[in-house]
Design brief:
With 349 residues, this protein is an alpha/beta fold. Helix content is 62%, strand content 8%. The chain folds into three domains: 61 residues; 168 residues, Rossmann fold (3-Layer(aba) Sandwich); 88 residues, Helicase, Ruva Protein, domain 3, CATH 1.10.8. The protein is built from 16 helices and seven strands.
């Protein structure tokens, strides 16, 4: 503080006016004052710039850490899905591929085009829609997409009632989906009407959009395996534009039981020992009757019916304990065998 006062302009002028310092010394002190001031300003600017750089580095590290955590959570969500191991492996490969292309671009190296349009083949209820939702979020997180939202559509959302109407409807839906994922279930229905059907107009519009918006949109077409193979043969440009074609296998009995256990757990119910064995029997009989082909939706229906039966059973008791409220017994599942014949083959993907 004394040092600064000693070299302040007012202090020098005061001393010179009082005759305490000669003009030469006053001049020198003024000169030194300006030199110190410039040096101090430069020093302050240097520290400000240094501090700003440090803060930017810290913020960038925090952002990268936050992004990694978000991606890891999404990957954990994908991994938590029962079965679908081959599907998960393929998705992870494409995540790695996109990241490497981004790094190569940063270092000004040649990159390969990244086109993520997909075909999902499989029976209803095998996780196609669920996987599509997760994919949208994952590719948004790694910077491939801008929104990551999933828009679900079917033939009625794409096909119009007169010439020109279909192209208009399809374009509008494609524009809504930009930055995210357009998931078209039972896509093969667009080709069922033949050459004169308006569905062909929708297919042609989709093919053009795949080229126009190849890096702004992921289009996923889904449906039964055989029907989707036929659909791809109806338009020569389709198969070549869908490099990623993924088969969704039917769930095994063990996987269906795991799905049931997971559904009970989410609802805070537990299968007791007898009901654990009994649910295997029920699902095996369903599979043998070919009522479902690995349909997780039918398992959900079974779970929800057993919970309602559980409620009807325990509400008659005089004293209801916490254990009573939690455990699903064989009695709650009895009758499912008779219900199996009435179970519809739900077309939920």
């Amino acid at each position: 503080m004394y040092h600064k006062k000693r070299f302040s302009q007012d202090y020098i002028i005061e001393k010179f006016t009082m005759g305490k310092i000669p003009m030469t010394e006053a001049f020198n002190k003024f000169f030194n004052y300006h030199e110190l001031n410039i040096e101090e300003r430069n020093e302050n600017r240097y520290f400000r710039e240094e501090r700003s750089l440090e803060l930017n580095i810290v913020k960038k590290k925090e952002k990268n850490q936050e992004d990694r955590e978000k991606l890891n959570k999404l990957l954990e969500e994908m991994d938590s899905l029962i079965g679908l191991e081959e599907v998960k492996k393929i998705i992870r490969e494409y995540i790695a591929f996109i990241k490497v292309q981004q790094l190569r671009e940063r270092y000004q190296l040649k990159t390969s085009p990244v086109v993520m349009h997909m075909i999902f083949k499989g029976n209803p209820g095998t996780g196609k829609t669920t996987m599509a939702r997760i994919i949208g979020k994952i590719f948004n997180e790694i910077g491939y997409l801008q929104g990551g939202e999933l828009i679900e559509a079917e033939r009625a959302d794409l096909v119009g009632e007169y010439i020109g109407h279909t192209a208009q409807k399809t374009k509008k839906l494609l524009e809504r989906a930009l930055g995210g994922v357009l998931f078209i279930d039972e896509a093969y229905s667009l080709a069922r009407g033949g050459e004169k059907d308006f569905g062909k107009e929708s297919i042609d519009t989709i093919v053009k959009a795949m080229e126009d918006y190849k890096d702004k949109l992921i289009i996923i077409l889904a449906g039964y395996r055989d029907e989707m193979n036929f659909f791809l043969r109806t338009n020569p440009g389709l198969a070549s534009r869908f490099a990623i074609q993924i088969d969704f296998p039917d769930y095994t009995i063990d996987e269906l039981v795991q799905i049931a256990n997971l559904m009970y757990k989410e609802r805070e119910y537990i299968l007791d020992e007898k009901s654990k064995h009994y649910i295997y029997r029920i699902l095996s009989e369903i599979r043998n009757k070919e009522i479902i082909n690995g349909n997780a939706r039918t398992v959900r229906n079974l779970v929800e019916r057993s919970i309602r039966q559980h409620a009807r059973r325990i509400i008659k008791q005089k004293n209801i304990s916490k254990k009573d409220l939690i455990y699903i017994t064989k009695e709650d599942l009895i009758g499912e065998e008779g219900n199996n014949e009435k179970m519809p083959c739900n077309r939920d993907a």
